[in-house]
Amino acid sequence: MSKDPGDWLVVKRVVRFGETDAAGVMHFHNLFRWCHEAWEESLERYGMNVNDIFPNGIEKDENLEFALPIVHCQADFRLPIITGNYLDLILYPEKIDMWSFQVKTQFQREGENVALGLIRHVAINAKTRERCPLPTPISRWLESSSIDLGPRPL
Amino acid sequence: MSKDPGDWLVVKRVVRFGETDAAGVMHFHNLFRWCHEAWEESLERYGMNVNDIFPNGIEKDENLEFALPIVHCQADFRLPIITGNYLDLILYPEKIDMWSFQVKTQFQREGENVALGLIRHVAINAKTRERCPLPTPISRWLESSSIDLGPRPL
Amino acid sequence: MSKDPGDWLVVKRVVRFGETDAAGVMHFHNLFRWCHEAWEESLERYGMNVNDIFPNGIEKDENLEFALPIVHCQADFRLPIITGNYLDLILYPEKIDMWSFQVKTQFQREGENVALGLIRHVAINAKTRERCPLPTPISRWLESSSIDLGPRPL
Amino acid sequence: MSKDPGDWLVVKRVVRFGETDAAGVMHFHNLFRWCHEAWEESLERYGMNVNDIFPNGIEKDENLEFALPIVHCQADFRLPIITGNYLDLILYPEKIDMWSFQVKTQFQREGENVALGLIRHVAINAKTRERCPLPTPISRWLESSSIDLGPRPL
């Protein structure tokens, strides 16, 4: 695959008014929504059909044998983020072991780090809820995201 | 049934900081979350098991033959609502026809109307997504909520 | 101004997993978040600095003499919306009178109407909270959005 | 003060349908909303006026000289949480140094640990955004919450 990881590992986002609180800045837990949505956009731009990865009530659901629950997440907030800010979200996916992985997301505004988020998933069988090997599409995305990429500072 | 509808048709709520925006007041769409949560609390206090009404990924889900999608909702906002406000939510459920119903929620602060929300649901078969008669627990709750109650102004 | 209103009155959005509920479809009140965010994106693409319109805790806040609270909103839901759906949001702004306006947002998926949202704002003085004439940037955006546009069906 | 810390350090919460996602379980980032709301309820039950602690657009705002931005947060998820679950939220506040503190929140369902959240705040001057000593009401609440309490396992 000759695609450039930059194509699917950097996502852009503009901060919206409803994401702020009465202190006038982004309300903290929206960061995790942004992290998850950036990961979804990354999978999509890599070439996945998100309905092969996330369950839904209408299409394909029957065939989804796995789920990817979140077991841990964390965030650091360095600078206040306000309505209208343009953010670059740089994703750092990492396989942890055969049944789990994590995605760090570095948030930058005009090149400056403003926040950092991390979400850790484990793969489970959707019926038994026992852990299982990472599903193929996730493994492929993880592999392509780390290959070619070279060391990236965090 | 000798329970007093007041027991399950008035719900209390305190406004929290994360529900405000940078204008310093409650961000508008939280009102709909409050309406839905008040309805859930009402069903529960009436004596329902919410897992007989709402699907979930773990328990009982297999047996739920219906869904209750929302087809319309609306809200009017009269006075600003801020962090720490104590609100009384007064529910006015109403059967529309054999397959649909709505719940109006009047929001009061110290007896004064501050906002009004309305959510309209239709019953459908969860598999075919064709409309179907209101499920029995919802019919019972609707009936008990209108009987005994007498006229209530809105 | 020779810009084409189409440039700032049609916004795209992909539905994300966290916007669904356990019924497997988009949870209803997210529609209002989408409407508001589409309006913000429209203002921005029209050429506004959103910090001239929405308050924030860091920049320019001191100078914002007006606020634009929402007094009414409503939505109709026609078809289920699921994770990964590509939606076109078509905005229909409308001046109501000298101190209020509304924005209808038509949601389409592959040309088919799936939902409709509407948000009505009134302009107030941020200090006194008395209503006031629509601020200039909003008036300009409303005018440009209706001029040139010709009749559009809804 | 002879109040029992148990009075303000254990909060109850029922999981609502809109807090789930299409995998049928609680969508992860709601946990942080619950942590923050539990902290607000704790302050209130301890005897605080939340408008002395959180800014708002209407009352008292002028006098709030400090803000309490979040600099770090994290969560661990152990068991799936579904609609209708009754949760006990047990708060473990801790002063870190003269300008920062954190609150751990243990989530239990029928005595079993299902999740753990942690939020760390720093006190800053609301105008200069330089860090400042913890405001008196927060110091008092932290002190009362650790005194009398004895060792509590986590």
Features:
homotetramer; 154 residues; alpha+beta; five-stranded antiparallel β-sheet; 3 helices; 21% helix; globular
Question: What can you tell me about this protein's structure?
Answer:
- Four copies of one chain form a homotetramer.
- Chain A is α+β, with helices and mostly antiparallel strands.
- Chain A is built from three helices and seven strands.
- A five-stranded antiparallel β-sheet of chain A has the order 1-4-5-6-3.
- In chain A, β5 and β6 form a beta hairpin.
- The first copy, chain A, starts with 5 loop residues before the first helix and ends in an 8-residue tail after the last helix.
- The mean pLDDT of chain A is 92.
- At the A-C interface, α2 of A face α2 of C.
- β3 of chain A pairs antiparallel with β3 of chain D.
**Backbone shape of chain A:** globular
Main sheet of chain A: which strands, in order across? Answer: 1-4-5-6-3
What percentage of residues of chain A falls in helices of 4 or more residues? 10-25%
Strand segment count of chain A: 7
Class based on secondary structure composition and strand pairing of chain A: alpha+beta
Helix/strand order of chain A: HEHEEEEEEH
User: What is the overall number of helices of chain A?
Assistant: 3
- This entry's quaternary arrangement is homotetramer
* Biggest sheet character of chain A: 5 strands, antiparallel
> How much β-strand is present in the residues of chain A?
25-35%
> From the alpha-carbon coordinates, what is the Rg of chain A to the nearest angstrom?
16 Å
